Backbone:
């Protein structure tokens, strides 16, 4: 019982050479021993790469160290998988996706598919529909909003706006808009209302979350937790400022590709002929807050479940909302 890593097998020599040129002699030694079957060396190589990733600002870390971390995670996952510890194997692979580089991403995803299948086979739980959130209460939500915010000027709403209408009336004009009935064909609209589905598809996966009222609060922190634990925190109803747990601006669909199958990239994203910068996910309980900020590009927000409030002056960046 083993995990196949074709990209690592074909690139390991060149990767180790680049790591050595960056001064990673100790890592290269440990990684070579890990490839030969030394479990302790695999763990040691992962720790060495982790230290390098945190040796300075993220943008200043040589990209080869991200590939080194992915390599180490693959070695660690192989040992856990061979010993039947599928959860630890999956956690190692997720860490490789979250913190690692792109060279070995295909191997990470290939292994994740195999480990996930093994986990589901061993789990053996049936699927029961379990709606996980309460009905939306405008009165309750209003208490989290700025004073008199709902009496301010509101953004116009249009139903099933055509791509031409969107481009001419809003994108070129720089005018925000809310577009309704544009996501009815998304599988996520039904599936993501069911917590059992989300746990079945992604419950064992490790994700980065923010804990606290918002990132400017003194008690704010970041954690890496299983997706199932994140869902349990939301379902528990403990939404006090200190315990609010929020998945914010994470490339969730690149990491968990089964969830990506539940969404459809809107045609509006390609208006104007520009390139799409990224696809990110925000997922949180009632009371979740993101402080007012400025993004360097236009945004299209697609709301799958419940409701959210957005405040914008849209002088430079235009925000478009779908539901």
Residues:
């Amino acid at each position: 019982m083993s995990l196949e890593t074709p990209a690592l097998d074909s690139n390991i020599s060149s990767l180790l050479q680049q790591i050595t040129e960056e001064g990673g002699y100790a890592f290269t030694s440990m990684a070579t021993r890990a490839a030969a079957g030394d479990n302790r060396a695999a763990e040691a190589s992962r720790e060495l790469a982790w230290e390098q990733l945190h040796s300075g600002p993220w943008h200043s870390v040589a990209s080869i160290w991200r590939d080194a971390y992915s390599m180490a995670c693959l070695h660690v996952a192989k040992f856990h998988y061979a010993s039947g510890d599928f959860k630890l194997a999956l956690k190692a692979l997720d860490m490789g996706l979250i913190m690692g580089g792109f060279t070995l991403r295909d191997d990470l995803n290939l292994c994740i598919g195999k480990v996930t299948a093994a986990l589901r086979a061993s789990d053996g739980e049936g699927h029961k529909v379990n709606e996980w959130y309460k009905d939306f209460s405008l009165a309750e939500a209003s208490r989290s909003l700025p004073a008199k915010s709902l009496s301010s000027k509101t953004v116009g709403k249009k139903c099933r706006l055509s791509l031409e209408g969107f481009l001419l009336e809003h994108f070129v004009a720089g005018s925000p808009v809310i577009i309704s009935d544009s996501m009815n064909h998304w599988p996520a609209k039904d599936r993501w209302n069911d917590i059992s589905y989300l746990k079945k598809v992604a419950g064992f996966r490790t994700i980065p979350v923010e804990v606290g009222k918002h990132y400017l609060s003194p008690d704010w922190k970041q954690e890496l937790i299983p997706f199932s634990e994140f869902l349990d925190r939301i379902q528990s109803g403990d939404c006090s400022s200190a315990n609010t747990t929020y998945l914010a601006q994470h490339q969730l669909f690149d990491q968990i590709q089964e969830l990506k199958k539940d969404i459809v990239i809107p045609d509006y994203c390609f208006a104007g002929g520009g390139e799409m910068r990224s696809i990110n996910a925000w997922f949180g309980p009632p009371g979740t807050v993101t402080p007012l900020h400025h993004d360097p590009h236009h945004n299209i927000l697609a709301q799958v479940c419940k409701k959210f409030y957005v405040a914008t002056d849209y002088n430079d960046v235009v925000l478009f909302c779908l539901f």
